[in-house]
Amino acid sequence: MSAEAADPGAPLRRRSRPRIDLRRLGRVALRGPVSRDRLPDAIGHVAEAHRAHHPDADLTILRRAYVLAESSHRGQMRKSGEPYITHPLAVTLILAELGAETTTLTASLLHDTVEDTEVTLDQVREQFGDEVCYLVDGVTKLEKVDYGAAAEPETFRKMLVATGNDVRVMSIKLADRLHNVRTLGVMRPEKQARIAKVTRDVLIPLAERLGVQALKTELEDLVFAILQPEEYEHTRALISAAAGQDAPLETIADNVRHTLRAAGISAEVLIRPRHFVSVHRVRRKRGELRGTDFGRLLVLVGEDADCYAVLGELHTCFTPVISEFKDFIAAPKFNLYQSLHTAVVGPGGAVAEVLIRTHRMHKVAEAGVVALGNPYAQDHTAAPQTEPSDERADPTRPGWLSRLLDWQESATDPDTFWTTLRDDLAQDREITVFRTDGGTVGLPAGASCVDAAYAQYGDRAHTSIGARVNGRLATLSTVLSDGDTVQLLLAQDTASGPSPDWLDHVRTPAARIAITGWLTDHPDEAKPGPETVDASGPGRPEPAVGAPVRDAQAVAPARTRSGPRSTGVVVDGPGAPVRLAGCCTPVPPDELTGFVVRGGAVTVHRRECPAVAAMQEIGRAPVGARWADAGGRESDAGCRVTLVAESFGRPRLLADLTEAIATAGAAIFSATVEPPSEQRVRHTYTLQLPDAAGLPALMRAMREVAGVYDVSRAQQPSSSG
Q: What gap in Å lies between CA 576 and CA 624, rounded to an integer?
């Protein structure tokens, strides 16, 4: 992994080649046609690579940056024994070959000056401007003297925040880490392993998300060699052995070239070798490797339409493996990647994977956000904005980065931030869901409605009571799929809080941190899970929605107390615990009857409740029961009642019903919503009213909600007996 062993006369790989060999170019950059006692004139390599992508670039600022970097680092040596200036030069060459613009290269040359020399940020700003100063500051590490053990996570937090404003910060950091990992051989094994693990857990996922595959693949191989040396050596031996055998991909490539020429399609067909980690993954997946598993065919064309023309010819003239087809042109990956993926069967049954893309797509696939140049440069051809804005439009700030920047603000503890960052970056696939207002929300694969709620509403999502997914009522635990349309339903009371059960369904750090924070701050107020929801105070409508919800018509959860003080009911047999049946939830002035159930408690029903007849049919003897006085239940007890609302399905129906209930002064003890049938929805609410006299007004208010055509007292048989 030393950066010295290279042929100084080896030619640079040109832009027309399909793959950028950054490892070799980095080694070449450190040596030049000069004597051993002089510093290599590597800035010439940087200039040549830069001009290949930007022919009109002004190199004056690069030369000034090189002079400052060389003079400020003069006398400093790397652990490998090389002059320190070789490091910023190698990092800058990596970025130059990827197509980075001049400002990024300037900052790359200076990226260690503020951290390791006497140069200050003010000096950088004075000589090179605000943008270069911002990039240099973004990659400058925080001092361990000031931050102690938190220095590394807080440095990454600082870099990520800076990346949110200018993605070029992370481009420089990735190139910096690549060169450092290339030269890790001079470090102690334990330090190599520590750096390799951080690279694996944080930097490689960031390179993947930013689409910089040329950096990601080499980092993966270098880390693979450090952390899994035996597997690495075995994979290297397999690749070496395959190189000396007949290459079936060459035969298939020739057939593809002939097919495309015959169809009049201008295309470049290349064999793209798999890197070590890719071969290792294929071997673990398939066991014994086939000759075609060591590489893939890459077909490069001029226009998007040509990609589909190539696909049509391949699927017509070869036998396609349909399960391997993926269209990342019509639906690009979240890291800007675009290609058509397919597989075809060649002579002798050999299966070859094929990537089809334009030259522009290939450049972006290799270099990701670096290939976009300066995303913040003003477009002088565009129409001027009617209103000035202090915010720069940044096409390189994808949803995952915005979410990361949001949740990191809540993760004030460095350990929490560091652990959560690794977990977040481990989620390597993203979905897009649509809001009913036409907007979109980006989420990691496996995210639920809870995640969508917090992504859309932030802390307001604490009051979530359900959702509609593609127009159908769904529980908050419902896992979302790419392309789903989600409408979140929120309670009106902003004092409501989340359920601890929600933590079982979240994938996004923002949601997990917000829920955990609320539960920590409100240890005595956490409501039960999303299937049966307790709203113990007036104005807290917290029903859950689902299909179906458990205990839909069960007896109200037992809060069994003795005597009339708790229920307002007197039964024959003084001292027996009394509870009101949840199947009919009697309230004054209902006529009552009771039955003794297991444990000696008496469950009291309305006389017309179907459960009464059922109990008598099986021989249960009724127990006399009556309200304590003519005024009904005692004032401090209130009354509980179960109501059934029949309605036509429509958006916001659940939210409007719960708002009507809260406005009437009732609290929702539990709620269920059955799956829609023929556009009709049945809601069952167990409600706590301050006074039974308010029941008629409550039922009228619920009937007045648009779409509700009937509200009645529950008449289902009880399960209590």
A: 12
pLDDT at 69 over 90: yes
362-381 residue pLDDT tens? 998 998 888 876 666 654 33
Q: How far apart, in whole angstroms, are the C-alpha atoms of residue 271 and residue 296?
A: 6
SS3 684: strand
Which residues make beta-bridge pairs with 596? Answer: 602
% of the chain exceeding 90 in pLDDT: 28
CA nearest to 709, candidates 689, 679, 686:
679
3-state secondary structure 542-611: CCCCCCCCCCCCCCCCCCCEECHHHHCEEECCCCCEEEECCCCCCCCCCCEEEEECCCCCEEEEECCCHH
249-302 tens-digit pLDDT: 898 999 999 999 999 999 999 999 999 999 988 888 877 888 888 999 999 999
pTM listed for this prediction? 0.62
Asked if residue 42 lies in contact with residue 30, where contact means CB atoms within 8 angstroms, the answer is yes
Helices and strands (DSSP H and E) totals, the chain: 27, 22
DSSP 677: B
Are 627 and 589 in contact by the 8 Å Cβ rule? The answer is yes
Q: What is the rounded end-to-end Cα distance, in angstroms, of the chain? A: 76
Residue positions annotated with a catalytic role: 115-116
- Which residues pair with residue 569 across a beta bridge? 627
Distance CA 26, CA 109 (A): 14
